[in-house]
Design brief:
Elements: E1 13-17, H1 21-33, E2 37-41, H2 44-53, E3 58-62, H3 70-80, E4 85-90, H4 95-103, E5 108-111, H5 116-144, H6 157-170, E6 176-179, H7 186-195, E7 204-208, H8 214-222, H9 238-242, E8 247-251, H10 258-270, E9 272-273, E10 282-283, E11 287-292, H11 296-301, H12 307-313, E12 316-319, H13 330-341, E13 351-352, H14 354-361, H15 368-382, E14 387-388, H16 390-393, H17 417-435, H18 440-447, H19 451-460
Parallel strand pairs: 1-2, 1-3, 3-4, 4-5, 6-11, 6-12, 7-8, 8-11, 13-14
Antiparallel strand pairs: 9-10
Helix pairs in contact: 2-3, 6-7, 13-15, 17-18, 18-19
């Protein structure tokens, strides 16, 4: 083994496995000095428990250990995280053991006793390889496209159903209504619909209907001719014509004034727009995607949204679930945001402490995915090292609070968590319905959820 500099360019999260305490101590003193984060295991069985819960950039493991050998550890690491590098350490190196280790996926091996510069060189090269693989994977993700469905993160059943529906709808010409709470990612779904559709090469145009004054919104949407109103010094084609052949997103469509809703309905029916002050219609070929966080059923019932326009927009309804309704997606999203945000700040974040993740899983996220991204961005900014702790991800000033009260210790035989959660949900919904006298809108308010979300839960839990 060639000797050289002991200072690796890359820092990483490393697991050291050895049944000799003196070896573990010697290696970890070096790792701490060089700025790596690390954990240790006194035997192979302990190592298996650790890697089942935590990811590492590099594992340094002794080969000969009782019961669970270094090769067993190597195979377990590669099965769970193929990109994690593994360095074998042995006092009895032979060509046969080296070949066996390499075939199983080891990066390299060290023979005891080894020198500090030998270990430093191997660690540096292994972490460099790990970083290069991550960079390649990141580049591959960017080439696939930032807003395609594959980049909408989620493994929950709710998100899988959303992906299946959206992929199918993307290939059609149908008008789409995307609903959900603020911060759930409705805009990403709209962008993914466009990028995955036959219209992907045409314009993608979005307008926020709630951010533009009523007297200007009509001209922004349909265009205007010169002299149509004060300040109209030239013709303007408007958003519909700007999106010709592509997709027009009407964000916050529930904020649109009734007077404009009538004109939008005409455009959707006739596929033609007439500029403000104009006398001739112009044909348009656009897919309209409407987005709202309002419950349009309620808006229609209370006279704030036209029923005929609602039916015209609601050809296909894609409901984006609350983050609190898909907590199993939180770890995926956290690591997704770390991969996105850390390079922007020239940071190398390699791990999230289990305690920090448990804190996030216990939080209700009223701001949904957008709030989670903000929390991760703040944590990445403040973290001095490669590991995000509970202090970074859940500072007291942020106000993270538990989603539900503590219910006691977990029994040895375990529990049926889904059944328990369903029972608690069912009980609270029934209480809310009783308190509201059966008025569902009031029951939804008592529960802090939308009317549509309450209807979904009533169907899911089979509550009459």
């Amino acid at each position: 083994m060639t000797t050289g500099s002991t200072a690796p360019t890359y820092r990483g999260h490393i697991l050291v496995v050895d049944d000799e305490a003196s070896v573990r101590d010697w290696v970890t003193i070096y790792l701490k000095r060089e700025g790596h984060s690390f954990r240790t295991a006194a035997n192979g069985a302990e190592a298996l428990d650790i890697i089942a819960e935590e990811s590492f950039d590099l594992v340094i493991t002794d080969l000969k250990m009782p019961k669970v050998s270094g090769l067993d550890v190597l195979r377990a690491v590669k099965e769970r995280s193929p990109e994690t590098e593994v360095v074998m350490v042995t006092a009895f190196a032979t060509p046969e053991t080296a070949i066996e280790a390499m075939k199983a996926g080891a990066y390299d091996y060290l023979t005891k006793p080894f020198k500090i510069d030998e270990m430093g060189l191997v660690i540096g090269r292994a972490l460099e390889k790990r970083a290069l693989v991550q960079d390649v994977n990141s580049l591959r993700e960017q080439l696939v496209g930032r807003h395609r469905f594959e980049d909408l993160v989620g493994k929950s059943e709710a998100m899988r159903q959303l992906f299946d529906l959206a992929r199918h709808v993307a290939q059609t010409r149908s008008t789409v209504l995307i609903t959900g709470e603020s911060g759930t990612g409705k805009e990403l779904v709209a962008r993914a619909l466009h990028n995955s559709s036959p219209r992907a090469g045409a314009p993608f145009v979005a307008i926020n209907c709630g951010a533009i004054p009523e007297n200007l919104l009509e001209a922004e949407l349909f265009g205007h001719v010169r002299g149509a109103f004060t300040g109209a010094t030239s013709d303007s084609e408007g958003m519909f014509l700007a999106a010709q052949g592509g997709t027009l997103v009407l964000d916050e469509v529930g904020e649109m004034p009734i007077s404009l809703q009538v004109k939008l309905l005409r455009v959707l029916q006739e596929r033609a727009v007439r500029p403000v002050g104009g006398t001739r219609d112009r044909q348009v070929d656009v897919r309209v995607v409407a987005i709202t966080n309002r419950d349009l059923d309620v808006e229609v019932a209370e006279g704030r949204f036209r029923q005929d326009l609602y039916y015209r927009l609601n050809v296909i309804n894609i409901v984006v679930p609350r983050l609190a309704d898909r907590p199993e997606d939180i770890p995926l999203l956290v690591h997704h945001f770390i991969r996105k945000l850390a390079p922007e700040q020239s940071k190398r974040i390699v791990e999230v402490e289990p305690e920090a993740m448990r804190g996030l899983l216990a939080y209700d996220f009223p701001g949904n995915v957008r709030e989670l991204e903000n929390i991760v961005e703040r944590a990445v900014t403040l973290a001095p090292g490669p590991v995000l702790t509970a202090t970074h991800l859940a500072p007291p000033s942020h106000g993270l609070t538990a989603r539900r009260p503590c219910v006691g210790e977990l029994p040895p035989e375990g529990v049926d968590l889904e059944a328990i959660v369903a029972d608690v949900e069912r009980d609270y919904i029934r209480q809310a319905l009783e308190q509201s006298g059966g008025v569902r809108k009031e029951a939804a308010r008592l529960l802090g959820i939308s009317f549509r979300s309450l209807r979904y839960r009533l169907d899911k839990l089979d509550i009459e």
